Amino acid sequence: MGREIHDIFVIGGGINGCGIARDAVGRGYSVALAEMNDFASGTSSGATKLIHGGLRYLEHYEFRLVRESLMEREILWAMAPHIIWPLRFVLPYHKGGIRPAWLIRLGLFLYDHLGGRKLLPPTSVLDMRRDPAGKPLKALFAKAFEYSDGWVDDARMVVLNARDAADKGATIMPRTKVVSARREKGLWHIETTDTVTGRNDSHQARMLVNAAGPWVDHVIRSAFGQNEAHHVRLVQGSHIVVKKKFDDVRAYFFQNPDNRIIFAIPYEGDFTLIGTTDRDYTADPKDVRISEEETVYLCNAASEYFKEPVKPEDIVWTYSAVRPLYDDGASKAQEATRDYVLKLEGEGAAPLLNVFGGKLTTYRRLSEHALEKIGAAIGVKGAPWTAKSHLPGGDFPVRGYEAQVDKLKRRYQFLADQHARRLVRRYGTRAEVLLGDARGIDDLGRLFGGDLYEAEVTYLVKQEWARHAEDVLWRRTKDGLRLSKEQAQSLEEYMAAMPAMAG
Predict the structure, then answer these.
(1) Burial (CB count <10 Å: 0-12, 13-18, 19+), residue 71
(2) What is the CATH number of domain 401-496?
(3) In terms of DSSP H, where are the helices of 63-136?
(4) In the predicted model, what is the mean pLDDT of the chain?
(5) pTM attached to this predicted model
């Protein structure tokens, strides 16, 4: 392993690290990537799961970021129509609200016209006394604005970037911690430890990319020994999931009296996702948990709008993550820039690229900008290619989800409708690889709960580096919402006996 000299060694298996690795290997660079835990186990699986322009960022004059994000929505949708799809958002309005109607109209006009919208429908105005969207809400909302954005299965987007990078020849190493990285004779010498087996390895690379997300400063301090590093502002965002609050397929955008906003989004068929919070965070990112204060805040904020209050006892699941925002000195967490910053260090031999900030929607453009800096540092290879590409399983028409479900049901007639829909949402065209030659439901092996069968678990271990029940239940899928603790434990025991096979 230590013999090969890679062009690029990437630290971090979140969306930015995996996106950069995929783009780079597709251009012809030799690439290795190390992630100390599971893919998307940090910030990248803790988002509100939107592919969006960031309507509220217009208030902070982040026009470049918003325009780039708006232009990316349809590009990403075409790349991965199985895990990304359009979503309409309803923004209820009442007189005396936080923002005047003219300001919202102006913001939505800019949103519609700043960039790239071809397939997504434009903004409209709703009469909430007649529109079904008004039904679950309090009567004080007579009017609403409706606009388009997109939804993404965030953790799946990360692992599909990793899978495609590996398919193109990258060395992908989850559960591999970078212990040290030092420059020597014009190369980076990187020491890693496999956190499962304890095995130590040495790697060499011409260039290092630090895309460790919330740990980016920690990597600079510990692996590189630079004690003064302080570039990121950690901001905690927490979400709650409750039993379904409304039947409408649209999501809601709620404005709060403190000027913050939350979303209420249809989630996994039977649930509603509510979030997010925004508060500074100073502890270790791995320990992030929703606080009682945040729980109360989200319940109260949603209850201001819904007729039927949201109570803490309604919550079936919560998740929290730390966003590593570039520290621009903003006074409030919600005002800190969401834009990304790429900093190249080291002229000549063994350059280092540190990646700060970023969000799901802009990861592909961030990767392209990173490759511009990489090309300038170690020589250009290949041209930008990802805009017209497909993530694994996404090679079907952008509006072809229903046809893909029908195709799967015709070939595997034993599949229940919901089961087929979930498989296409997760795996797209690769659902047929997962199901193989199965002729009946029994051919899928043991049922762990919900519609999670042994065949799917085996696929996730072999193809997507899943090693624990948590990887399967909360990142590769969201079946954790449907399995009991006992069922999850039996899955953990089953997986513990399986060899780790992905590569």
Answers:
(1) middle
(2) 1.10.8.870
(3) 63-79, 101-113
(4) 93
(5) 0.96
